[in-house]
Please model this.
Amino acid sequence: MAGVQHVAQPLALLNAAMTGQRRIPDTSAQVKLLYSFLSSDPASTQLVTPDRREALMQVKLDTARAAEQAVILDEVEAWAARQQLETHLRAERQGPRGAEVKARLEGIVLARVRAAAHQLGVAIPTASDALLVQRIAAPAPAPDPTPVAAGLERFLRSEECLTPVSEAQAKAVAAALAKLGPGASEPAVRAAASAALGDAPGEANLDDLVASVTAPLREHWGSQIALERAQALLAGAGLALPAGEAQRRERLLAAVSSALLDLEAPTAALPATGAAGDAQAGAVGKLALQVTGQPVMNRGLSDSVGANQLKSLGFALLFVFVIMTGLFRSLWSGLLGMTPALFTLLAIWGAMGLLGVRLDIGTSMLGSIIVGAGVDYAIHMLAAWRAPEGEPLTAAARGAADRSGLAVFCNATMIAAAFFVLTLGEAKPLKNVGGLTAAAMLTAGLATYLAIPTIARRRRYRPQRADDEGELPELEVEAAEARKAQN
Amino acid sequence: MLRRRLLQSLLALPLLLAPAAARAETPGEKALRLHDEANTRAKDQYFEYDVVTQEPGKAETKIQMKVKVKKDKRFIEFTAPGDIKGMKVLVASLTQMYVYLPAYHKVRRVASHTRSQGFMGTALSQDDMSITTYSDVYAPKLVKETKSEWVLELTRRPGQSHPYPRIDLAIRKDNHHPQWFHLYNDKGLKLKSETRSDYGCQAGNICTARVHKVTDHTRGGMWTELRRTGWKVNTGAPDSDFTPRALQTR
Model:
């Protein structure tokens, strides 16, 4: 897999612009608001329908080989089946299924950590999953308030803070609020801010300050805790990259830190149990996952082509066998007539296998072309196969080659030349069909004049008719002349 | 002595008159000044709009909003649909724009590089909503005059950052308000068109269009229509209604 794209990514980016945290927001109101911003972005609107009832998760593959795509496709389908979210509910972390919520969030974080490591080329052995889960679930270390104070100070000096404060006041307020630690109550924030501002800032100013600083304070603490957890996780799981790779290390740390923020999500989607309490526990929804795309179509096409190939070729060979048997009044002759075609099929399919040419719509036609041409040439050969009594079979072979050879090889060469033209183009499928058909025509011609003389055991295959009577004396004369020439 | 002073004064007269002659208003400048004056004539105004957008091949969308205008400042509050209800935008100046996001309880300043992007899925950009008067930003040239309108070609003045280097603008002679705009990029390609129709007036000569239609030619003819559903003039809105603080507290 080269990458995965889905609508949660632009949502997380927008959320990062709002809160500094690159993750899906916790409330549906926030998600809806972000969706409304996305509605102006044509790229994002390709990932979700306007009514937001259907979304696309695009898995990009870095291989064009059908066999490799099929393996990944099987894995994706297995993943989709494992999600078990057909009927799900939004369960609260503090609710009766809190333990399941925690386990699911840990699972999501583990998957995100693995994905981030994979993207950055950091190998995580599957065996270390248990260690990672243990580290993910470990309690957060006591966070350092210094970066939080620095972040708050920047905010207080920005135009987004509703109360204008001096540089000294911003520094004092930031330090006082950071000192409160994570999860400080609003009265505590208010009291700390008031004390730090000094000189009775005024109720309105204090109200504005508390209103504007509450969310950034919570976000800075959340980010700092996640960052320190990520540092501990990477070090504890042996995933810390060497100092020389600072850029990759920072990216991995940022991705893992961002993933760890999800551990604090208040809810998670869980499969509904079907119990009466489900509806009360959270909004019950239905989710259907459908795997689709080019590899799925390719697989369907491949299955269809493969099945059709077997059916149509089997039918063609059977039909040809019946006609040949009827024509030459013998089962053995019927089989003999099919020999060049079968030999050519083996040669061309073998070559396809050796050259790595796949069976597709174009190349699947080769079987029928080969059967048609092979049988055609065999009929010419067998119809001309005649040897007088007392003469060896080589005389029949020579006579048949004399009578039919020019026609067969002219035919094979002309058709081969016509198909060979296709190899001069740019389209790979057409080049394959052209080259292989040209080769098949020549092979079928050669196979006719090699296989039939090698296997044939009769003096004549075409039933004798009344108008053939004058033929044998003529052949005998020809044979006598030939013997004379040899002597 | 007196003669000498009189002579000096006569000689100095052309020098004194020269700057005045240089400042003489061209017909285009006069038309644009009248337009700008008409746009800022009211002490303040209050509007309610239905904003309907039609993108080719997609369903029509509708947004409702309330807009307060005082000189070059605008305060916009979205009232529907529910996803954006409570979201507010303050255009404090051509370069200062803030947005309040109720779901996040936050005021964010809108970065200048994002202001030319589509706004809430409409054909309007944030820059389109930020400009009220044009004389400071564009140099006008009168290219056509009929009985009912002046047609101006506006060229962006050096140092200005408004996204359209050229705007063609038709101003009605009866109320000095726009009839239509064509907005071009630096290669002369028409990006957007805007028409304003069905003008009404209050308090004598304070007029606004009931329908604004903006068509984005770069997005297959996608259009947005602002349909005015409510309008008040000179409501006495204080300046404090047009501050970032008002976004969070009003």
Q: What stands out?
A: Chain B has one domain: 26-249. The interface with chain A takes residues 58-59, 61, 82-84, 87, 98, 101-109, 117-122, 219, 244-245, 248-249 of chain B (CB under 8 Å). The domain at 26-249 of chain B is CATH 2.50.20.10 (outer membrane lipoprotein receptor (LolB), chain A).
